[in-house]
């Protein structure tokens, strides 16, 4: 028998600040994907049989490893994305906190609960419980390569599912680190596996027969994922991009709002799904807000030295998009008060603050994903809400206001809103996270995030024979009359 040797295709993960090769990984094929999913199915049976307590204990063990070696994980994130080490640490800390929360709360959220059976079915005991789906495919982005996919991974695992994870081709090393440390905590079965490769590997995962596909990435890829998953009627969770707005009311703390706008817009070099991209400011405080924002933005610099507050643009193709957005804004009458067209270099983009940019320009309509802000003056907060909501996207949003904070937050068409702080909702494990419109659908985090990876299972158990038997062919006219009478007494009253 002759064996045919297949050469394994590989790809390199690069440090975006230096173009140094950080690691080399296989491009997994459709067959590799099928095998991983088959292994996951077997692992799922064991993992699910551990019950909430058994899984919680193992997730706690993993959480301990991530916490103790957090600096090492942050170093991998820094090498593959270029973001400052301390920013990478924040991601790790938040992911650990979410892991602790799911380990502690999965049973309470998903375990069996009694429901009222109602008068007509008073002889029944009704219960609902949320059962694991089986195998979850997770496809992740590169911008928060720990925090973002972990929002699906740990919730799916805690609910009793096995997970097959395809990280972004820009951050395979982060995925490998997570999967290897999980295997240290849970060595028995491959409950959490890694696949590496480009879009085609992700597409193979969509077609592989997983029980749900959790995707985080751009809206354009989200559409492709949904179309591919439709072939096998595989349900999807789509966490896509955003064009988040920050509103500043006339009674807001202006210094705090400006600080939040600059950090929300420029941290991680603006490569944040819930990053601030547009700002709408009440005319009474517009000048003060702009002055403060400009002052703070001027103190932020992109670079790879330890003093630089933001790193490089991780994905080289994004540089062109950022350049186009700034150029278009300026061409159409906008002014750059900080940065501008020259801010876009070969690897780094310096902070850019734009004003007087028309609302229908691409810098206001499309996700820029760079360290840029557009600031617009509004006559009142109704105009601010209406302009903020005039977007295909609806992921996060921010309001700075004293009196009307909660009211304005409720009126914004977005999945999450922070009032008088920025992006705070992402760090609160009990709060759901997800978008509307082109930002996607479904929710990670919190009780909703746990339920996302389960199916509701309803059980009605008869406790005693019903006084009025409805579900039988031996039902009599007398029974029908009794039912008619009962329903009239219950629901027929004129108000
Ligand atoms: P992307 O859409 O380019 O890629 C995301 C993932 O999809 C990668 O792993 C990629 O390999 C895979 N992929 C690409 N084509 C595919 C295909 N045809 N089939 C299956 N998989 C495929 O996104 P990105 O550039 O990695 O991430 C940035 C985007 O992610 C931004 O739009 C950002 O706003 C968004 N994002 C959203 C959230 C959220 O929670 N809503 C969080 C982080 C990032």
TrEMBL record:
The keyword Oxidoreductase applies. This is Aldehyde dehydrogenase. It comes from the Bacteria. Coiled coil: none annotated. It comes from Kibdelosporangium banguiense. Keywords: Oxidoreductase. Residues 7-459 form the Aldehyde dehydrogenase domain. The lineage of its organism: Bacteria, Bacillati, Actinomycetota, Actinomycetes, Pseudonocardiales. SUPFAM superfamilies: ALDH-like. InterPro entries: Ald_DH/histidinol_DH, Ald_DH_C, Ald_DH_CS_GLU, Ald_DH_N, Aldehyde_DH_dom, Aldehyde_DH_NAD(P). Belongs to the aldehyde dehydrogenase family. The active site is at residue 239.
